[in-house]
Amino acid sequence: MAKVSQPTDRLPGLPKAPTGIQGLDEITCGGLPAGRPTLVCGEAGCGKTMLALEFIVRGATEFGEPGVIMMFEENASELTANVRSLGFDLAKLVSQKKIRIDFVQIERCEIEETGEYDLEGLFIRLGHAIDSIGAKRVVLDTIEALFAGLPNHAILRSELRRLFRWMKDRGMTAVITGERGEHSLTRFGLEEYVADCVIVLDQRVQEQISTRRLRVLKYRGSVHGTNEYPFLIGARGLSVLPITSLQLDHKAPADRVVTGIARLDEMLGGKGVYRGSSVLISGSSGTGKSSLAAKFVDAACRRGTRVIMFAYEESPAQLLRNMRSVGIHLGPWVAKGLLQIHSSRPTMQGLEQHLVVMHDLVRAFQPSVIVVDPISNLTLDSRETEVKPMLMRLIDFLKQQQITSLFTSLATGSGAMPEDSQLGVSSLMDTWLLLRNVEFNGERNRTIHVLKSRGMSHSNQVREFILSDKGIDFVDVYVGGDRVLTGSARAAQEAQERATTELREQDHRRKVEQLRSKRRAIDAQIAALQAQAESETAQVNFAIAQETLQAATAQQNITAMVQMRGGLTGDNGGRKEKR
Amino acid sequence: MKTTELRSKRKSTEAAGAFELRLYVAGQTEKSVVALANLKRICETHLAGRYRIEIIDLMKSPQLAVADQIFALPTLVRRLPEPIKKIIGDLSNEQRVLVGLEVQRARV
Question: Pick from A57, A136, A129: which is nearest to A93 by CA?
Fold first, then answer.
């Protein structure tokens, strides 16, 4: 975390003191204003003291800045016990002279007030504590206790003003905690004196779920994140979840993990998803998200790797039973100790607690795959601003451990494109599978397609996704014409297609036959005509021969007549004799 | 005014000393001078011979502030008789000092 103080170099002139608190330094662009007081206010139990203490402990252990804790409410041994749960050994740090704790006890009943006084005693104590260890950091928790102990608020206020001035002059980076008032940030208006930086903590119960939030209300002379950021108090202290806290420096394994469905792997470049990547399966209810996730779990267990399933909708027993019905048997893996199923109601605890639980379980079990089913249930009304940073942190954590993660998400917002409802988290995902129900012709069918898959060629095709007691199967959808058909519509369309082809072929055959017979008829006709022509020719020849014969006969008759008449042939015979 | 001087002067009266008082101050401020003057006057008037005053200057020994839980100055601590009582301020209101030290009751 020491790295995070670097970006402040962009802003010369305002030195910052890194807190070492995960996320807070990112929000404040490097830490709290060095040498100035910061007010941390919020209701009781929202984590003010924890923040202040972590600031001191990390300052002493990580940044070489010893610190003084001046407690007005808890005593030193209570305090030491309370923070031991966070892994801070205050007693050791005190003995190493890195931290000094001074407990200021104000017993109202034993104090009488008369005449003029000031808080010089407090100054001296603080000054002495600072000098004894060379402190650079100071925490006053909660100085407002003075208001309860001292009736003269006028003196108190002017002395507090002097105290903050004095700490500034001494160059102390201070954290002053204050309890939230009804109409002001703090009950006694401390914000009036501490004007450099104000951080507001808040523990709100929304829809029965309590979440801690942090906001930098004011930071004089510096840019800062202005949003409300959820934070949690975990085993390593405070952890704020800013969007910018992602350190994108995790390794990217090149090897792939199969999904358990051969056709799906085929769609993902033939090899499945990258190890350590994040996969989102989204779709409306009943599209088969959980089944697909279960298949993924099954495949991972078959490889002999460990898996954790976080189920937010079904109990482990119900999950096992339901998955059995589609031919996915997860029970043996649980028995073998390869699979852990953690079911809980998302409403059982706040988002932050879910994250803490996940972290702890993952650390303890060291799985290679985790499945969250579904992430959309983690917030009842899908406040993505909250889920997203949480998921970002979770995914970041998983990627650093090279754990492949699969999240299912219920797409809400019916009617609209299901893609739209997932935009918030989709950017965190490396692979996004979209399941859809296609309702047509009185039945609903499931389709799947790969919306995106970073770093690999993937299919652009929609596949039909069939869930049966034999398991999950993918079928090519009917994509003829200008429609995409699935289920029985696809089957019907295919049958119809076949019938149409058949008919057409018959038709063709018939047409060819017709043509053939027509040709035969024409041929016959031609033959008949030819025969006719021949008979006519014969008739004509006959007539010609007959006439020729008649003519010859006539000539012979004439000649015979002439001979009979005595050889006198008239003019005609005379010419002949002359020749 | 010197702390040691004052203590030695009062040493003779220790036998009867039902009241063991400690006045915390920080250097010679106006308030601490006024407080000491007021304290001496009140003690002489009401507790003559039955008191002992110890003056602690926190400027010189700041570490002593923790033991008696001092935060305001000047502070008068009645260490004896028990229970411990604290009076903060310059002790200008004699009545309140007497109430605070429970002197009235002691006299009666």
Answer: A57
